[in-house]
Design brief:
Blueprint: E1 3-12, E2 23-31, H1 35-48, H2 67-79, E3 84-90, H3 105-118, E4 125-132, H4 139-152, E5 161-167, H5 173-189, H6 196-209, E6 224-228
Helix pairs in contact: 1-2, 2-6, 3-4, 5-6
């Protein structure tokens, strides 16, 4: 029987000329039949810390008063064997040369999404991909992304990658978890240090993952998989 998975994707500093050095794409994924159980547990952690179950988890909301809450979320991610993360970091967008490679920023962006997801996809699985709604990724671009991903995975009948759907992050707890982990990578690779609470969250991710988050993990790392992209092939 084919295993079904849900993948929740988000991105940070993805615009071509936003003045930010590093860009991060990331995805949290889990078996489809575990999503409700995981969402329930995330909401229980919110309530434990006297937050509303509908409180939206975001990296930008980390503060000294909410530090223990975010630390608990990081620990929960690493403690639950059904949760997995894959991140791709582009360390410095200023080095991109789309003209040299005959592509637009959008075309390169789709390629980066494939780089992000190709390690997750297994031909024996079936995947539904959920992406945070952003003005920069409308319905036409989502359909194009679906086409590119399926073509690159030789999934022309779309049996493996069943759908890509835009969702509101404040309604999807697993997407909020992706925002947290992506935010940590973005903060680190932009060399930011002004928040002690955020730096401590990054240190906990380092401690729990066993990685410094500055270099690639092993390709088949299953829990916290990271690629720091060097751009040689694009």
């Amino acid at each position: 029987m084919t295993t079904q998975f849900n993948i929740y994707c988000d991105e940070s500093c993805h615009l071509e000329n936003d003045g930010q050095k590093a860009m991060v794409l990331g995805a949290v994924w889990c078996p489809k039949d575990k999503r409700q159980e995981i969402s329930k547990r995330i909401r229980e952690i919110k309530v434990k810390h006297r937050l509303s179950p509908s409180f939206e988890v975001k990296w930008t909301k980390i503060s000294p008063s909410k530090f223990s809450f975010y630390l608990d979320l990081v620990d929960y991610f690493f403690d639950d064997d059904d949760l997995h993360f894959r991140g791709v970091v582009i360390p410095d967008k200023r080095h991109l040369n789309h003209e040299m490679h005959g592509q637009s920023h959008d075309e390169w962006y789709y390629k980066m999404y494939f780089v992000l997801l190709k390690t997750i996809f297994d031909p024996e699985g079936k995947y539904s991909v959920y992406i945070d709604i952003k003005d920069t990724l409308g319905n036409e671009k989502v359909e194009k992304l679906h086409e590119v991903l399926c073509n690159n995975a030789f999934d022309f009948s779309r049996k493996m990658i069943g759908k890509i759907q835009r969702v509101h992050s404040h309604e999807v707890d697993l997407l909020q978890l992706a925002d947290l982990l992506i935010g940590a990578l973005s903060y680190l690779h932009r060399d930011l240090e002004e928040s002690r609470a955020k730096s401590q969250i990054i240190n906990r991710i380092r401690e729990r993952s066993g990685y410094q988050l500055l270099r690639n993990t092993l390709l088949r790392e299953d829990k916290f998989n990271l690629l720091v992209w060097n751009g040689r092939n694009w």
